[in-house]
Amino acid sequence: MRLKVLFTLAMLSFVTGFSQHSPARDWNEEMLHAIRNDFARPTVHARNLFHASVVMYDAWAIFNPPASPVLLGNTFQGVSTPYSSLPVPANADEATQEVMSYAMYRLMSHRFQNSPGVEEIFTSIDLLMDSYGYDTSINTTNYSDGSYAALGNYLARMMIQFGLQDNSNEINDYANQFYAPVNPPLILEEYEDNIHINPDHWQPLAFESYIDQSGNIIPGGIPNFLSPEWGAVSPFALQEEDLEILNNGSINSYVYNNPGDPPYIQNSNANGIDDPYKWNFSLVLSWSSHLDPEILTEIDISPANLGNYDSALFPETFTEYKDFYDFTNGGATSNGHDVNPVTGMPYEPQMVKLSDYARVLAEFWADGPDSETPPGHWFVILNYVSDHPLLEKRFKGEGPILSDLEWDVKLYLTLGGAMHDAAVTTWGIKGFYDYTRPISTIRYMAAKGQSTDPALPNFDPHGLPLIDTLIELIEEGDPLAGADNENVGELKVLAWRGPDFIEDPTVDIAGVDWILAKRWWPYQRGTFVTPPFAGYVSGHSTFSRAAAEVLTFTTGDAFFPGGMGTFEIEQDTFLFFEKGPSEPFSLQWATYRDASDQTSLSRIWGGIHPPVDDVPGRILGEQIGLGAFNLAEAYFNGEILGVEDTSLLSELVLYPNPAKNTVQIAHPASLTIETIEVFDTASRKVQSFQNNKNEVQPSFAIQTLENGLYIVKLQTSRGAVSKRLLVER
Question: Which domain range does residue 459 map to?
Fold first, then answer.
């Protein structure tokens, strides 16, 4: 989405010119800028954002005990990264900025060297380095002389090497290695009957000109399935015990937290709407009938009416799905919020045309041209939340207020890990189930006929169900019957008329009318139509729910700062591929989860997903967000010590433990203990000792410490290690 428009929160309209940001924020903005100028690949960019977040976090963590780095001096996803720690600098923030900047500069130079917008990307990162006063010609990775620039280059090299072995196939530009589609391409412009396909599987689309969501023209006209083998990519917090390696007859798929099969098409003898498959895709048709500003139906889109749904009640059975989603009127079950918890006042209603609301949602959450892709979109939201003056930057909403730098690196690592795990999980499932999209399924069923009544014309067990005022048979005299009644007996649907009715998007509106069902279009650009990968499960639902969980846990508050987030929508200019909306309004969310749920519904109105793709994604996202948060917090607290498995540091022991008055450090003779730092569970340094005499087996006194758990960080000649110490008298 074009989020160059300002994202506003609570009752405050932000203006440009915020106070100076941290270097982590500067580099995150550069990463988002680069993604907007690259190909639109949500899997690849979720990984880019995650790897960048690791680099930025490590540049901070090495100077801020007891935090554990992810890469440096540690073992991550089976890969160990050697690191001989530098002395603690007099100004840790300045050192962090230099290490971070060189690391990000090298990483981005590597990752975006073949981007269509490479010149703009490189010009921008060169300018940032120049603004910091850093010399980009320094390319050594030998930091033994204490060079922070060299250490940054080394950190980038280690991340690049990690990425070349993480199963993403980066070295071959992330190309598919084994996947092949089951179905032939659907040639969109020719409107041929789409009956010679397997309707349970994904179908490629053939374009005269295919333009991805970042506005890049893709040669060939038939985009490949993006990342069907992505489930094998090294994750952040996903657990091996939740992984299955499954074969669908084509490829081995790595599937985490398998949600089970989606509904497959049934041979309906009658009453086709009772088939869960046909109900799901017919609901997409029903919501397509809302997309006309001439329809005056209004709804209250404020938090007073929308949001606040208990995820424990998400539907599981077909009956529950039918109760959860409003087939006819659009939307899903929600309870709304009685009051804004910050102001103590009720949320004011906001009545808006359903048609304008649905069209804006489809485009706002789709992240159209100039896109950051869905994972990047949530980084944009995080950044604007961080800028809000009512936000106190306390991790989990408690403890001391963090500096902008510490806040940014911690939240970026948490959100980056969640977005990456969402991509690994979702695309592993997409690759295995290889499930169909509405554009293929609806045109397939429409060409087959109707599945409601064998006594009526054009019956077929795989046809669309007939629904009065939505899906009907064409009779003689119908405007769609054709000059020679060639369409009599075919199916028609009341739906958005499609891109054929838009010549100038600044003035034209396609509107809703009866159209031939086998010519149905999603509410998307005619040069894009549907993302080039399988539907089940929804990436938007998974990304968004995972991000909502991260923001909820890291801020310690389910609500946006001030109790409400808003995005201002301008009349007639916001929509990209047709004129609209017909009136200005604000998108509003009380909580991060409310925003996530709105994202999910937007994909149904946009014709991209049926409900069955949505709910499993929300459930997975909730698990992924919590898992990423828990692991990130363990790094922040110095609890991740993978290096102990592969070095002499594993032999270092504190004793006695529990301790009363004095603690001895036992270690191999080849190690030297340089510094000893003791931190409480709130990450406050409570003791610090220098081993200036290079004592072997040094000890330290703890008489002044109260009973409780502490983290002891030991800087050694072989690197840093943290140990738990229990004081118990």
Answer: 439-519
